[in-house]
Amino acid sequence: MNVWWRAAFGAAAMGFALGCSITVSEAVHNRYVPAVVCAVVAVLLIRPFRRRQELGLRNAARGLLNGLVVTGGSAAVVLGAGTLAGWITWGRFELHRVLLFLLTNTIIALLLEALPEELSLRGHTWSALRSRYRGLLAAVGTTALFLLVPGISSAVQLILGTIFEQNTQALSFAPPGEDIASYLFLLTIFGFTLIAARVATGSLWASVATHLTFLTVNRLTIDGAKRDSGWSASLVSQDVLLLVPAYLVLAALVYYVQFLISRPELSLASSLPQRDK
User: Fold this and answer.
1) Count of domains observed in the chain
2) How far, rounded to the nearest angstrom, does the alpha carbon of residue 23 sit from its chain's CA centroid?
3) Is there a contact between 63 and 206 (Cβ–Cβ < 8 Å)?
4) What residues make up the domain containing 195?
5) I need a surface site. Which of 1, 91, 185, 246 has the fewest CB within 10 A?
6) Keywords, A to Z (predicted)?
């Protein structure tokens, strides 16, 4: 099978899994069931075609810790700078509500987004493209396919929702209420950062932790009031939201430095392709 078709299968699998979970969420009044459905469908579609080593499923503890520290640290630096500049003010910190939010959000975000998306895209799709292409082209290709996932999931939900006579939404490449250009811009930077995490550490778990930390930081702070997280950030203007891609860029740079320290003879763009065995 052509390498691009194999790579595209990762995006299709994730889009299908997410579309199925959205359909289930319309039928059940429980946030956990759709998340479990998404994770199970993605694993069943991807895992039979890739060995653990090809997916980067190794060094779990070190990879998770690395992703948490790099992404969380980058967010703290950038959002902290924004606070010192007077661009962000913070609401009351309610510990018990924050802890409850962290518990529920971690379970749902891990199963619904972080684990299945990383397994499908930075796991399967990245490995397929790296079997033939150098790092830069594989990264661009993986990220381009990542941008198609919201549209694929929207199409799947539209089809399944029609079959099961549910309320359906119009076909879109961004979630309802999101500006599509801004959303795809952020998703592009996010995609490259997630690839940098995997390449720098050699572990998909670093990408999973980066993904989960990113979602948690944003939902706890910037979206805190909307999500009743027990803490919230108020921005002086919508332009301050650019601090979000800014801390992703910082995290990607940290991962790049890690990569150069571990393999100084290579770079992310010039490293030789490693063919699947």
Assistant:
1) 1
2) 21
3) yes
4) 53-148+173-262
5) 1
6) Membrane, Transmembrane, Transmembrane helix
Is residue 9 one of the residues assigned to a domain?
no
What are the Cα distances from residue 116, in Å, to 73, 156, 205, 208? 24, 16, 12, 9
Distances (CA, A) of 65 to 56, 70, 213: 15, 8, 11
Domain presence at residue 12: no
pLDDT in tens, 28-72: 989 999 999 999 999 999 999 888 889 999 999 999 999 999 999
Own/partner pairs, 158-165, CB within 8 angstroms, 24+ separation:
159/19, 160/19, 160/20, 160/23, 161/23, 161/26, 164/23, 164/27
Distance separating alpha carbons of residues 57 and 119, to the nearest angstrom: 9
Residue 116 lies in a domain: yes
